[in-house]
Amino acid sequence: MNISRLFILIFILAALQVTAQIAPDKYYIQFTDKNNSPYSIDHPEDFLTARAIQRRDKQDIPIIENDIPVNPQYLQGVANVGVQLLNATRWLNGVTVFTTDSTRIDEILALPYVENVLMLQNEGTGKKKAFFENEHIHKGVFSNAGFKQSRVTDELDYGEARFQINQINGIPLHNAGYHGEGMVIVVLDGGFKGVQENPVFDSLWADNRVLGTKDFVNIGGNVFTESQHGKNVLSTMAANYPGLMIGTAPNASYWLLHTEDVKSENVIEEYNWMSGAEFADSVGADVINSSLSYVDFDLPQWDHTYDDLDGNTAVSTIAADLAASKGILVCNSAGNSGGSSFPWNGAPADADSVMSVGAVGYDNQRAGFSSIGPTVDGRIRPVIMALGSNTVVAIGNDTIGHGSGTSFSSPIITGMSACLWQANPNMKVMDVYNAIKQSGNYAQNPNNYMGWGIPDYELANSILTTVENKTDKNDHLARVSPNPFHETLNLNIKTEQPSSNVKVELLNVAGVVIYSESFYLSALSKEIRLGNKLALLPDGLYLLKVAAGDRVDVLKLIKQ
User: Is the pTM value of this prediction over 0.85?
Assistant: First the structure.
């Protein structure tokens, strides 16, 4: 055998070996339709809990086709081929599967109701760690010296966690009796090792407020293994150990879902995220916390490029926006890549309806690792900030310590947002979202490092409680459209007078008048059009005050 032929043979054998090493074993199966399903939008009680339906009803969210589960006959047909079913997704109308025999995929593709198949995970590839593996967890020397002084007297003994709650001015909500009672928070994470043992969670178990668990990585597995990250995250919300540590929602109820495979980084984890969010929807969750971020994977060809981070491309991003469309507030870590060559918010924090949360330190300044914006389509990211540098978290089985990463700023916001929503139960999800955003200390000048800044939950509560629009539009002096608006705003004035003088004022959320004008309305016209003067306003929440005679009307407006 000559040398050239020998090298060719060696090359072929090496290629075959590599192919065997990276043979895909997990796939996503996309179905064509939901025809002949035993489920119907007319009977949502067959696939949504009463609490989930109630959340939809309160926010005027209809049940639509993507709510219907995957046709069980299609699932059985795929299973009959000889693969293991993993997690179905009703929003995408598909299912993830496991097989060690790639020839099964051809059989699945031949099924009449299968549209296509995507590979999602390859065994034998290099193992990248979950994004949070580079975060720092350590025991610390605790001291309140130099902490910002409280604006109110504490009714709870927050212990070492006081600063991270006071920094977002959450103590007044707690003092008013809002600790998350009756609210349901779902946590998507990589494992919850130590939650059963650490005493900061004792009341969580004593009050039966762990509503359940589900493992989307190891089907039927135990979520209290593999990683302590979920415990660290959960503690910033659910801890309730007076004098040591109290979280932002110590009396809320929780579902603990394992969606992240900490042993590798593969696209299937985004599909797990999708299924986890769907589960959260089905059990009636109010808020989701995801201290997870997706940018690069074990196989470089699956990596998200900057162009992918457009709010519409990554599977987890699509899932997050769908969850928000079902009335769930989604809070997600911005990411920890701020100091890298790829500093952008990862998926699903690029979703336009997600509360992307960056990290600040005790000095209220952005932590250098906290990921930045904008998204590729020019939207500001992150949205808001909270303590993510030396955040107080539960560690081990019996103590607390410090953690640094946006993984910990996100759940601080998640818990306090649940309390805010508890205080304003008639608000819709985007009302809550916008109030939090507009309460930030950068709300009048948001940027791609701090977003709208550190929120003030007392101010957010004031926005929601003092400016709530009347439910009966016929009671309004003014009707406005469109709302949200972009450049122009139309006002239709309802008055019994044949002619009238009308004063229109636009205020920011701090109550500062930023536009004021008076109009004379004749009997022939009751309409006012506001145009150029509004076009240059920054996006956000505003208050419109309309006065005519002895009548005054105040409405919420959103510019976007």
Answer: no
